[in-house]
Amino acid sequence: MKFTIDRLNFIRQFNNVLRAVPSKTAIQILTGIKFDLTEAGLKLTGSDADISIETMLPVTDEALKLQIESTGSIIITARFFSEIVKKLPEETFTFEVKDNLQVTLTSGKSEFTVIGFDANSYPHLPEVSDASQLEFSADLLRGLINPTVLAVSAQESRPILTGVHFLINADGLLAVATDSHRLAQRKLDLPNVEGNYDFVIPGKSLTELARMLADYQDDVQLKITDNQVLFTFGQTQFYSRLLEGNYPDTTRLIPTDSTTTIQIDASTLLASVERASLLSHESRNNVVRLQVNPAENMATLSSNSPDVGNVEEELSLSSLVGNELDISFNPDYLKDALRAFGSTEIKLSFTTNLRPFTLVPSEDAEHYIQLITPVRTF
C-alpha cells in the first residue's frame, strides 16, 4: 500500500474523522483510524462505537494531489499519527506500508516509521441500507441542532435525557431537549413528509455533526433505522446510535399562560446577565435575581457574593406587562438560551417565582421556545 497526498487537505479530512475517535477506550483498536486505499481513492474511518465517521478522499479531487502506487488497508493510531503529519516539512507526504505492518511517512528529508494494525480487526460499520430517508439543507439542520442541544443532560443517571428527541410527521419536525432544569424546543414546517418518525439522538453526536457542517452549504441526507441514524453529506458519512427508551412528555412542562411578560433585545440581556454572573460565580449557589416593577415600568438584575461584593443593573426593556415579580435563576442556563437566540427581540413570560419561565423570539414564537426553572432562594 502506497500513496502520496497533499498534507494540508489530508489533515482537514483526517481531523473530521478524528472527531469519532475516543481519547480513552478499553477497546484498543478504536484509538486508530482505518485507511482503505482503492483505485477510486482513500477512505478514512473512525469510530467510538457510538459515533462512526467515514469519509472518502477521491482520486478525482485535484486539490488532494492523490497519487496511488499500490492499494491496501491498515489501521493507524490516530492522535499520534495526526501530530506527525501536522509537523511534516513539505506540502505533500508519502505513506507506504512495508512488511510487518510498518508504515513509513516521508516528506522532504523527514522520515517517520510507525506501527500499524491489521485492518481486518476493525469493527464493521452499522448497516442502514433499508432505512427511511429524509433530506435537509445544512443550514436548516444547524439551526435545529444548535438551539436545542444546549439543553441535553450531562448526567448519565437518566440516559434518555442526554439526547435530543425528534418527532417527524405531517405536522413537521419537532426537536426537544431537557435536563429537567431547562428545556429547548424547535419546530420546523416540513412539506410533503411521509410517515412518522420518533427517535432520540445523543447530544454528543449532534454537537460533533454541527461542527462538521459549519462550512457545508448543500443538502444532508438522513437515514433512520431502529437503532442507528446516518447523515450523508459530500464525501462523508456520519453514523450515530440512537438512544433506547421513551422520552418523557415535555408538552405539559410548557406554561400556556403568564402573569408577567417583558420584551427585550436578547444580546442586551445577555450582556447584563454576563456582568451579573461575574459575581454569582463567586458565590456558593450561583444565582442571579430579577425584580420586575410594573408600577415604575422597570426591571433590575442583581447578584451578590458575600466574599466579593454585589452588582445591580436596570434593564433596557422594550415593553413590560403584568404583575410584580421577584425571581431567581441560574445565569448559565439563561446565557446559553440567549446565545442561541442571537441578536433579536425576545419575550420572557413568567407565572410565579417558583414556576418555569419561557423565552421566545418576538416574531416567531410558535417555532422556538426555551424554558428555564427558577431557583428557590427562601
Q: Could you describe the 3D structure shown?
A:
By secondary structure, the chain is α+β, with helices and mostly antiparallel strands. It contains 6 helices and 26 strands. It has helices at 7-18, 78-86, 138-149, 203-212, 266-280, 331-341; strands at 2-6, 32-38, 41-47, 51-58, 67-70, 72-77, 92-97, 102-107, 110-117, 132-137, 163-169, 172-178, 182-188, 197-202, 219-224, 228-233, 236-241, 260-265, 288-293, 298-305, 309-314, 319-322, 325-329, 345-350, 357-361, 368-372. The chain is elongated, with a radius of gyration of 25 Å. The N and C termini lie far apart (70 Å). Residues 138-249 form the DNA polymerase III beta sliding clamp central domain. Pfam families: DNA_pol3_beta (PF00712), DNA_pol3_beta_2 (PF02767), DNA_pol3_beta_3 (PF02768). This is Beta sliding clamp. Its main location: cytoplasm.
